[in-house]
Design a protein that fits this description.
It is a single chain. This protein has one domain: MFS general substrate transporter like domains (Growth Hormone, Chain: A). It is mostly helical. The protein is 80% helix and 0% strand. Helix 3 crosses helix 5 and helix 10 crosses helix 16.
């Protein structure tokens, strides 16, 4: 699993380069189109996997391999149009996270989640650093050729798909029974504000970040060097605190990471006036991001500790997430038609900073409630599956 997470982090760096090339070659509207297509592709393939995968004999291990083989094949054979690039990254996101959630929720107990989140987060950062450095050097040698870069990522995807899964449990997938019953639960509806803040703003964040990079940096290789420095900052922070996470201090980690991420979004907005602040934003966002991701990972698993079959809970969450992501993205896209790129960057960054603060408030309340009344959700989750 940890090697899978490292490759997931490595290929995940492709998003920044796609975003840069899409905005640089086309326009901001192209970035919104890319994000809308990508989110729909990601959610669509995730729902397909959970709803129909069992009838095709899919297992967690097979899904893990397909999550790299399919995007890799598209990168090697497809064109560089906005819909194709959206399909590549959307399928990668949807398939890798479907495999990861299914395998993790099937085997991890609540007490194991924090240490696993720390280790997997560290490996994802390490994979991202290596991939970004290689991609940056490659771009410098090829004259910022997007075509050559996509082929390189495609070959890595194919290699990962052939290599992974040998020592991973099979974890057969089971058919969904009644996802709507999960949505009807009060416990699930109580999770909706967190889902929106944590993931509903994902599309807005991706679009705003790409606009900031296009306005502040001169070339794709510049983006790569900035991302490399930022990744090293994140890796150093993870190494220093690698043994410090636990059930007892979840709220503290969530608090400082949300604060740091909120400040990074303030810097992103300010880069509309002073482009050099984009570098500071990237470094701070990458240093704090892995810790926030680890806290969100625990919160996500905690949110799924409710009644119902595991597959029903995951399907319900993915369906609601898609509605939230598309709703926020399309609303922001509509508002952006009346904004200049600088105003888009300022307002989008302010929304994301406020979202990080609100996420801490909700997550802290959850962790405080869990401290008063320990949950047994992870045990019941495995039993119900």
């Amino acid at each position: 699993m940890l090697l899978f997470v490292a490759f997931q982090g490595a290929i995940g760096t492709l998003a920044a380069f796609i975003g840069y090339f899409v905005v640089g070659v086309d326009d901001i509207n192209a970035m919104f189109r890319f994000t809308a297509y990508m989110l729909s592709d990601a959610s669509g393939c995730a729902l397909f996997v959970y709803l129909l995968g069992p009838y095709f004999g899919l297992t967690g291990r097979r899904l893990m391999r397909l999550s790299f083989l399919i995007p890799g094949a598209l990168l090697l054979t497809g064109n560089e149009s906005v819909p194709m690039m959206a399909a590549v990254y959307g399928l990668f996101l949807g398939l890798t996270w479907s495999a990861r959630y299914w395998l993790e929720m099937s085997v991890l107990s609540d007490a194991e989640r924090d240490s696993y989140a720390s280790r997997s987060g560290a490996l994802a950062v390490a994979g991202g650093i290596v991939a970004t450095l290689v991609a940056t050097l490659f771009l410098a040698k090829t004259g910022n050729s997007s075509h050559a870069l996509y082929k390189l990522y495609g070959m890595v995807c194919i290699g990962a798909g052939l290599m992974l899964g040998r020592n991973v449990t099979e974890a057969p997938m089971v058919p969904a029974k009644n996802p709507l019953a999960v949505i009807a639960q009060p416990e699930f509806r109580n999770c909706l504000p967190l889902f929106f803040l944590e993931s509903g703003l994902l599309g807005v964040g991706g679009a705003v970040g790409s606009v900031g990079a296009a306005m502040s940096l001169g070339s794709a290789s510049d983006l790569g060097w900035v991302s490399s420095v930022a990744g090293l900052a994140g890796a150093a922070a993870l190494y220093v605190t690698r043994k410090s996470r636990g059930v007892h201090n979840r709220s503290g980690w969530l608090g400082w990471s949300c604060f740091a991420v909120a400040i990074s979004f303030v810097l992103l907005g300010a880069s509309a006036w002073l482009p050099a602040l984009f570098v500071a934003h990237s470094i701070l966002r990458s240093a704090a991001g892995p810790f926030l991701n680890a806290s969100e990972h625990v919160l996500n698993q905690r949110a799924l500790d409710i009644r119902g079959e595991l597959v029903d809970r995951i399907v319900a969450r993915d369906l609601v997430m898609w509605v939230m992501r598309m709703g926020s993205l399309l609303t922001f896209w509509w508002l952006s038609n009346a904004m200049s790129p600088a105003h888009l960057l300022e307002i989008g960054s302010a929304i994301l900073a406020l979202g990080a603060a609100a996420e801490y408030a909700i997550g802290q309340a959850w962790f405080a409630a869990d401290a008063r009344t320990p949950r047994i959700g992870a045990v019941s989750a495995r039993q119900s599956s």
